[in-house]
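Slide 14.
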Amino acid sequence: DWSSDVCSSDLAARPPACPTVTIEGDAAFSWPGGSPVGDGVFAWPVGQPPGAGWYDIQPFGTNRHLGADLNADAGTRVGDPVYAAGDGCVVFAQDIWRGWGNVVRVVHPLPDGSVVETLYAHLDRIDTAVGAWITRGTLIGTVGTAHGTYGPHLHLEVRTTVGLPQGPGYGWLDGYTDPIVWIAEHDTSVYQSPER
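Slide 15: predicted structure.
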């Protein structure tokens, strides 16, 4: 468990109540008891150490791709662990099939009071639940194939607009940002980001 080395947060000691986020509808939400302030630090959700030995096979924006498809240099295996990229609340965790398989969505509070959402898709297994406060480096699931639709990989999105509909994974880039760039800009570790 690498989380004890690179993942710490005051919020882990006093987790806030998680917001209710309406997916597929109104993106507005509020934190019960007031908005927590996150540390704004993110780490790679795959690899040991985080990001080591992984690359982005289909970068953000290529063919209007809304995420990054992360594969391991040594060959991605079904069951490889997937970790939370940052501290936050799980707002969605279920199997939605439709080319997505198991999906986990996490809302992360930032130091300026804003939020971002990360989405982890094609998981073989989900190891968290809606309403859970999780810290950076918490196991949230394992790499999968979206029920045999694709070869094993992690589809990762960073959404700057929280609560967007699930969508098809491709489309207009409004409300999304490049996960490779986002995490690299918010990662304080010495580890390398996945290569493009």
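Speaker note: Residues 25 and 165 are 7 Å apart (CA to CA).
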